[in-house]
Amino acid sequence: MNVLLRKLKNFVRREILRDPFLLTAKRWFKDQGDTTLRVNYPLNAQSVVWDVGGYKGDFAHEIHSRYGCKVYLFEPVPHFYAHCVERFKNNPSIVCLQYGLSNADGEFEITDTGDASSFVRLGENNAAYKAQLRDASAVFHALGDPEVDLIKVNVEGGEFFIFPSLIEHGLMPKFNHLQIQFHNFVPNAVEQRQSIRQSFSKTHREDWNYEFVWEGWSRK
Predict the structure, then answer these.
(1) Which end of the chain has fewer CB atoms within 10 angstroms, the N or the C?
(2) CA distance 100 to 74
């Protein structure tokens, strides 16, 4: 019943109230973005990919299966991390790291809401865990200052901490392709996203954009 009610509410918001986010999401699914734009990149076996917000490892699996590239999967939720470790235990090219990225190191509470787990949005009715965050720029140096061919970020609001750190430390030119899901539930999300995008435009060009759904950039 809850599923039906949610679908009805979304239908009303999308088709009658013309909610911009839901209309954009509808366009994304119509364009089959998950099976085209999100996985079509000029990668090969020498490429390095960062999967930030790895969840159960589906993106890491798909991108490695296509290109044979090295994937660093960042997942702070303990049982999702354990799932990925088990899933990729026989694949040394997919490295699972039990922490998330941010603009500082620390231990934080994270909700367990499946693929919407978040440090930023803590739900009253959801289980929560202590999990680790590490400064994105420090992690970049700790991993050997790599040339990252693709960074995919879906971290339920954490993007507004990750990218300012990378931008501040002048690391954006080290990332060839960006794939980001910005989230609009964060305070001042529109303004924050626009500020980050303006910084992106100094080093990257926008390839495609489904606002607050997914967007892709490539280094100039």
Answers:
(1) N
(2) 6
Domain parsing of the chain, residue ranges: 1-33, 44-219
Q: Are strands 100-102 and 106-111 parallel, antiparallel or unpaired?
A: unpaired
Nearest Cα neighbor of 150 from 75, 200, 58, 218 is: 218
**164 Cβ contact partners less than 8 Å away, ≥ 6 residues apart:** 103, 196
Predicted TM-score of the model (pTM): 0.87
Q: For domain 44-219, which architecture applies? A: 3-Layer(aba) Sandwich (3.40)
- Residue 73: phi and psi, rounded to 5, are -105, 120
pLDDT at 5: 59
Q: Give 69's DSSP letter.
A: -
Report CA torsion sign: 159, 139, 172, 177: negative
Closest CA to 195 of 151, 220, 159, 155: 159
Look at residue 110 in the predicted model and tell me its pLDDT: 75
Confidence of residue 117 (pLDDT cuts 50, 70, 90): very low
3-42: pLDDT as tens digits: 665 655 554 455 554 677 889 999 999 999 999 999 999 9
In a 13 Å sphere around the CA of 176, the CA atoms on its Cβ side amount to 11
The pLDDT value given to residue 116: 46
